[in-house]
Design goal:
This protein is α/β, with parallel strands linked by helices. The protein is built from 10 helices and 12 strands. Strands 1, 5, 6, 7, 8, 9, 10, 11 and 12 form a 9-stranded mixed sheet that branches. It has a 3-stranded antiparallel sheet with strand order 2-3-4. Strand 3 and strand 4 form a beta hairpin. Helix 3 packs across helix 9 and helix 3 packs antiparallel against helix 10. The longest helix is centred in the last third of the chain and has 17 residues. It is globular, with a radius of gyration of 25 Å. It starts with 20 loop residues before the first helix and ends with a strand.
Length: 318
């Protein structure tokens, strides 16, 4: 018997059977098809799931009891590995979402620029990895407008701007992105900040200044190492990440973080465009945790409250 929003219950009593096969069969029919009163949502084991939004999930997710999450767990404080467990802002938000939905969010770390594709292969159901909601990603386009794969929908849950991470003491006097003209910058490959560096380089060129030399790395940790070693003047990433690194790396003695709040963008949970039922359930759950305060608590645990949104939106990024 499969899980559904209606569970069969035995409400008919078997009649005293007369001798013969027909009477026995009749009793079996009455027993199996009695009162079908709706008892709420159920799991494959037959146990009811009392989570407020469990019934809104696709049946496949209900049966599994798990939402598989693709992430790149190298991006503290948003998502990183500590004691063998993936922790941070995103896992904290996911845990709160899971209580509304009645399922577990299971994070699996991979390379950032392969995460969206992992949904098409079935390796993950969603991507939650400080992924900026952009029109290009919604449409499956690269930075040149060429089609690279299936587009995705986003449930937007966090706001962040560009963070410029420089060596302690800021020896190059970097204050804005314009100060990077003619200099070398390190970024993580496949991020919006790789594209931001390219856009800024074009802006520098148009202004008659030197272009930016861009070095892209598989992880942001490698980009940080490049800056620390003096091979690049700055690492571009998200403002809460830059601030966290500056506070913690080398006991706070390795880096400084410069915020650029004028270019704030939205992080979104990416969902396959065909999976509208899951997308809508996540949006309902996000609104619920915003209202009950567990969303804010998840952010405040990592000093990321400045990035809070006030309501759930889909595909609101630019």
């Amino acid at each position: 018997m499969t899980a559904s929003t209606t569970r069969r219950t035995t409400a008919a009593r078997s009649r005293i059977a007369a001798v013969g096969a027909i009477a026995v069969a009749g009793a079996l029919i009455l027993t199996g098809c009695g009162d079908q009163t709706d008892k709420g949502s159920a799991t494959p084991s037959g146990k009811e799931n009392s989570a407020p939004l469990f019934s809104k999930l696709p049946k496949k997710i209900q049966d599994a009891g798990v939402i598989k999450v693709g992430t790149d767990a190298t991006y503290a404080p948003m998502e990183f590995t500590e004691g063998g467990k993936i922790v941070g802002v995103d896992p904290g938000i996911a845990e709160a979402l899971g209580k509304q939905l009645g399922v577990t969010f299971k994070f699996e770390s991979g390379t950032f620029d392969t995460l969206i594709g992992s949904m098409q292969t079935g390796r993950s159901d969603v991507v939650m990895s400080s992924l900026t909601d952009t029109k290009a990603r919604q449409e499956g386009l690269d930075d040149k407008g060429a089609k690279t794969g299936a587009g995705v929908d986003f449930v937007d849950y966090f706001s962040a701007s560009t963070g410029i991470l420089v060596k302690k003491g800021n020896p190059e006097g970097i204050k804005t992105l314009d100060d990077l003209c003619g200099k070398k910058v390190a970024v993580q490959r496949g991020t919006t900040y790789e594209q931001s560096a390219k856009d800024q380089s074009e802006k520098c060129k148009t202004a008659g200044k030197g272009e930016i030399a861009i070095e892209s790395f598989p992880t942001d940790a490698e980009a940080q190492t490049r800056v620390k070693a003096g091979g690049a003047v700055a690492d571009l990433n998200d403002s809460p990440v830059a601030a966290y690194i500056a506070q913690t790396a080398g006991g706070g003695n390795d880096f400084e973080a410069i915020a650029n709040p004028t270019d704030a963008g939205l992080f979104g949970i990416a969902v396959d465009k065909k999976n509208t039922e899951l997308r809508d359930a996540l949006k309902l759950a996000l609104d619920a945790i915003i209202k009950d305060g567990t969303y804010k608590a998840a952010l405040d645990k990592w000093n990321a409250g400045s990035g809070a949104v006030t309501e759930a939106k889909t595909n609101a990024g630019q």
